[in-house]
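The aim of this short unit is practical: by the end, you should be able to scan a pair of folded records and say something sensible about each. We start with the first protein, listed as its amino acid sequence and then its C-alpha cells.
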Amino acid sequence: MKYTLTPQTRFFSVTIPAMVAGGVSAVMGYQVVSGQADQFTWTILFLSLWVVLDHVLALAHPESIVIDETQIALTSFGRTHAYAWTDIQKLRIKRLASGTLYVRINDGGLLKGRYWIPVHKFPDRLALTQALVDHQR
C-alpha cells in the first residue's frame, strides 16, 4: 500500500523547511567566508546545515511510504530508501506526543535508517500506523 502526503502538506512540512534551511546556510556560510562570523553565526550555520542534512540527504522526513509484502520504501526529494523485509532485523517505533512516529530500521544512522513520520498528516494515518506496527520487530 502507498501512503503519500498531500501536495500542500508535503510543501509546507518537507520542502519549505529544507529550502529555508538551505538559504540560511548560504547566508551564514557567506558570513563565515567573509570574516563576519560570530558565535551566533556558527550556531545558526550548524543548525541550518543539520536541517538540510536531515531533510535532503538523510530523507528522514519521507513524502511517501510504500509498504508491501516484500519491502518498505520511503521516498523524499525524488530519492528512495528501500528495505526488504528479509533484511530488516529491527524495526523500532517510538510514538511522540506530537503524533509523529520515530522509526528506526536496523541500526539506523545519520544518513539512513531513521525516519520521522508525522502519521497525523497522512490521509490514511490509521492504516499507515497499523502497517508499521504490524512489522515492528
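Turning to the second protein, read its sequence before its C-alpha cells, just as you did above.
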Amino acid sequence: MRVKLKFRLRAAAALLSTLTFAAGIATMLPAGESQRISLALSAPQVFDLADADTGVLDPDELRDTFVELIRKQLTAEPELSPEMISSQQLDSETLVRRARDLGYPLAATVYVMRDANLRLGIGVNIYETETGYVVSGRSAFGASDVALAHALERGLAGLGNELRTYLSTRELERRLNVRRITLLSPVPDVVVTFADGRSVAFDDSGAIVLDDPPYRVGQTITLSAHRPGYYPQTVDHYIDAPETTVSVPRLQRRTRYSLGGAAFPAHGIGLLAVGRWYPRTDTVFAELTGGTFRVSPRTELASQLEEDLDDLQAGEIEAFRLDELGMSVGAYLFATPARPIRPGLQLGAGVMHAQGSGWDATIPYLAPINPFVSFGTQRLRARVVTALRYTFGAEAANRRWLITEGPIPYGRLEVSYTW
C-alpha cells in the first residue's frame, strides 16, 4: 500500500517539474519564440489530510512521472519561463513580495494535497507581483495516475496564453492610465474644479501637480477655473499622453466701473470724458459724459446756428467753444463678456452749450438710438459709439437732426479703463 501510494504521489511532483523544466525548454526554441513570461516559484506546499498510517508524502521520493507530457505541452505553448527563487516553502505574501523585489511580473504558489480518500490534487495560483492580486489559477484531481495525468494536461493547457493576454491588457492599461497632470495658471488665487467635483487651489507658484489622477489617455476632461471678482471659465482638455499639462487661461475680470476719454471727430479739437457704472456686470450700464471742444465755423453745426440765431448775419460765426454734458443707459447685445468684439445699443439725452464772440446758445438734445461696438476683454478697452442726436429748444438749433458732419458721421472713438 505504501509503495503504491508513493507511486501515485509521483504525480504531485508534476507541476513543480513542469515549471522548473520549462526554463530548459526555452533555450531549445527558435529566437522568435524565446520571449517567455518570467514566473517566480518556491517549493510547493504539501497538505496531507489522510491518516498517518496510510503513508506520508515524501517529496524526495517523487519522480518525474509527467515530464514528457509537460515537455510536449510547453513546446506547443512556449509562453512561460518559470524559475525557482526559493527552495523553501513560502506563503503567498512572502513569495509575491520577494518576486516583486527581484523583478518578476508574476509569481506562482504551488500546493499538493492528498485527501482522506487518498485522492491526489495539484493546484497553482498565479499572482501579479505589482498588485498582489490573483490573476489565474489551475487545479487537477485524480483517483489514479492516469486520471491525474489527464486532468493535469487539461489544467495546464492555455495557461501561458491566458497570462500573456492578461499582461498585455495590463500593459495597455498602464499606457492608457494618466500618471500625472500639471496645471499651470498665470495668476494665483485661482481654484480649479473638475467635472467630478474635486477642487484644487493655486498658490503663488502657479503650478499644481496631480499624480495618478483617475483619467485615461484619449479622454477629454472638463475643468472650470474660478477667481473672486472674475468670470469663471470652462476648459476642455484632450489627454494625449500619460503626462500632460493643462494651462488655465487668464480669467476675465467682472466689470463694474469704467473711466476713459473719447475723441469726437465731428466737433474737432477737444476731449470727452466718459464714466460708466454697470449695475449688471458687463451687460447693462449707466453712462455720464462731459467734455469741451473747439468747433470750426465750417461745420454743419455752425451753419445751423447761423440760421437759428436772429441777431447774427450769415458768415459771421467764427470758431467757437462747445461744452456738452450727457447721460445715457445701454446694454451689450448678442455676445458674452468673453467675446473680444461685442455690439450693443444705448440711448440718452444731454445738453450742448455753444459760446462764440458775443453770443452763446444752449442746445438740449435726445440721443434716441445709438449702436456701438466694444473691443477687448481686459482692463483697457475701446469702443466706437454713434451719436445720432435730435435737438430741441427755443434758442438755437431747434428741432434738427445731427447725423453727419460732412463725410464724418456723428460718433466718438473711446478708450476706457475698466475695473
